[in-house]
Task: inverse folding
């Protein structure tokens, strides 16, 4: 065992399911060569570093690198005790062979050959096919959490076909928990209130910079005992540095100047309280009791260690009140 190995991070239950998530999760989009190529060795070392630091929740998807993320994650985890970690993947995008585009690169942000193409499919058959393919790519005996992936334009089929299919698999013990992952809070709230989900992944809509999920998703999740996993906690980069640069990104595009200025004001208040902007960003989302875990996308061992250190940083509760008084935070998520 590595001398630097830590005990697993604290665990948070997912409703009344057997699934328990570590409070910090590993986002494996970069393992699918998001934006640029990562080597197999770099990715494997990043997974090993996460394990040694106590992370036991790993999130992937077929979408990430057209299956590359799932293959790499499976290779890293198959040598670990299966009962000691949780894997989530997603359904809704079937990967179909595409020999006509195999000579090109993927057009959806991943530096991989376009040997397959994504086909939206939230039907029962699509869910079963997608999950079977994910099991084959990962080489794992089961998937613990299955999310519907970005069903924004597919409410009818996602809610009436995909969710019942996943409920059946959960009730059979094939998977541990089911949910949906999206970049909005409104439809996630519908899933919480109108379907039998256990967990939702909310990306970018509950952060130190903006909190629309406080008005709909988080109260609904608390009421229904549905766990919330927060992703996109840095709003795609704007909150990722101690002081946002002029070219900072927000929702994966150039951030507007007024948003950069607001974020710099938040950073200044954080500095007055002895913490960095990224440390505060991670700490803030954990103040709400419905939040079970925060998933951070990481590419290499240094990024894993940085995420762990930020997650472990001590952040005074007075910071949130100071940000509210400065009109830089709408409200404290869960007042003491």
Result:
């Amino acid at each position: 065992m590595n001398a630097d190995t830590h005990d697993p991070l604290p665990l948070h239950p997912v409703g009344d399911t057997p699934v328990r998530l570590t409070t910090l999760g590993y986002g494996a989009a970069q393992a699918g060569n998001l934006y640029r190529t990562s080597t197999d060795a770099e990715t494997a070392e990043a997974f090993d570093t996460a394990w040694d630091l106590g992370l036991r929740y790993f999130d992937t998807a077929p979408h990430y690198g057209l299956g590359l993320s799932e293959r790499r994650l499976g290779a890293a985890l198959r040598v670990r005790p299966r009962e000691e970690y949780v894997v989530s993947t997603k359904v809704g995008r079937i990967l179909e062979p595409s020999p006509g585009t195999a000579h090109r690169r993927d057009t959806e942000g991943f530096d991989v050959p376009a040997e397959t193409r994504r086909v939206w499919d939230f039907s029962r058959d699509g869910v079963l096919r997608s999950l079977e393919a994910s099991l084959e790519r990962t080489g794992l005996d089961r998937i613990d959490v299955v999310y519907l992936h970005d069903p924004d334009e597919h409410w009818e089929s996602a809610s009436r076909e995909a969710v019942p299919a996943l409920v059946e698999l959960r009730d059979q013990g094939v998977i541990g928990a089911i949910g949906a992952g999206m970049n909005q809070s409104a439809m996630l709230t519908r899933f919480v209130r109108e379907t039998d989900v256990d967990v939702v992944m909310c990306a970018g809509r509950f952060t130190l910079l903006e909190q629309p999920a406080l008005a709909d998703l988080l109260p609904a999740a608390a009421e229904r005992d549905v766990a919330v996993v927060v992703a996109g906690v840095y709003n795609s980069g704007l909150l990722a540095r101690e002081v946002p640069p002029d070219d900072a990104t927000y929702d994966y595009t150039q951030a507007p100047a007024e948003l950069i200025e607001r974020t710099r004001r938040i950073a200044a208040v954080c500095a007055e309280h002895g913490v960095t902007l990224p440390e505060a960003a991670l700490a803030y989302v954990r103040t709400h009791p419905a939040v079970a875990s925060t998933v951070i996308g990481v590419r290499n061992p240094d990024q894993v260690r940085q995420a762990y250190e930020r997650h472990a940083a001590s952040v005074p509760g007075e910071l949130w009140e100071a940000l509210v008084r400065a009109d830089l935070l709408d409200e404290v998520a869960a007042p003491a």
In short: Residues 262 and 311 are 23 Å apart (CA to CA). The chain has one domain: 11-230+291-317. Residues 155-171 form the longest helix (17 residues).
